[in-house]
Structure formats: C-alpha cells, structure tokens
Amino acid sequence: MTKTVFLAGALALATALPAAAELVTVQSQKPVGETMDALEAAVEGAGATVFARVDHAAGAQNAALELSPSQLLIFGNPKLGTPVMQADMRAGLFLPLKVLAYEDADGQVWLTYEDPAEMLSGLEIPADAEFVAKMQGALGKLTAAAVQ
Questions:
Q1: Which residues of 87-106 are buried (b: 16+ CB within 10 A; e: fewer)?
Q2: What is the rounded CA–CA span in Å between residue 95 and residue 72?
Q3: What does the pLDDT look like over 4-63, one tens digit per residue?
C-alpha cells in the first residue's frame, strides 16, 4: 500500500511540473567574475534591482568541494514583473529573473537564462503577452551588454 501511494504521488507530481524551459546561452570572452560584474552593471543601469549574486563555486569551496567558476545573478523590475504575477500569481515561482554565468570544461564562459515564454508556458499567461516580449528583449539586451 505504501509503495502504491508513493508511486501515485510521485507520478502526480511529475505530471504537474512544467517541462524544463528552453535555455538561451550567450558566449562571453571574459572570465565569469568580469562577465557578472558587467551584467550587474547593465542590470542596474537599466533601472532594475539586483536582489542577489550567488557564487556557486565559492559555496562549493566552503564545503571542501570543487566546482568550475559559476555565479548566478537574481534581479528584477517590479514594473515588469508585477503584470506577470497579476496575470498568474504562480509566476512568482519563476521571478525574479536569473542569469547564470559559468565556465565549462573547456574553459569557455557562458551566460545562460530561461526563455521567459517557455518558462511561463505552463501558466495562464498568453505566449504573446506584451510583458513576455519585454522580458525576452530585456534579457537579450542585458546579456549582450555583459559580454561586450
């Protein structure tokens, strides 16, 4: 009985979760730290708020583990994010926006983020909503500015 309930619960959870969103990746010629500094400056220059900058590699090092350089920037703008959440409050699971900078096994640095249209596709938000296009445009401009 317990196995049946567990399996049924696991199946229900798996089917309720949205599929992984499409990732957009932008190549950088700068190290992770410099790329994130540039992204943070671009975000702040655009009038958005940086909520956190997470250094995953430093966290791994603190746990006596190794991880390639990788940092996550969490940021947003209530003027853009609020209409998304007004359309579907569950969008708060995906907001604020996040961009990951990481170095791959070959030493190449990348910026990666979820495409907002894909990220929000499992919600009651039309794919052609104006704010989705604005989020896509902002992420594209900010990441392009960071790798210049």
A1: beeebeebbbbbbbbbbeee
A2: 14
A3: 444 444 444 444 444 555 999 999 999 999 999 999 999 999 999 999 999 999 999 999
- The answer to whether residues 131 and 83 touch, using CB atoms and an 8 Å cutoff, is yes
Rg (CA), the chain: 18
All structural domains of the chain, each given as residue ranges with its CATH number in brackets, are: 21-147 (3.30.310.70)
pTM beyond 0.90: the answer is no
* Long-range contact pairs involving 14-18 (C-beta distance under 8 Å, separation at least 24): 18/121, 18/122
Cα gap 147→99, rounded to integer Å? 13
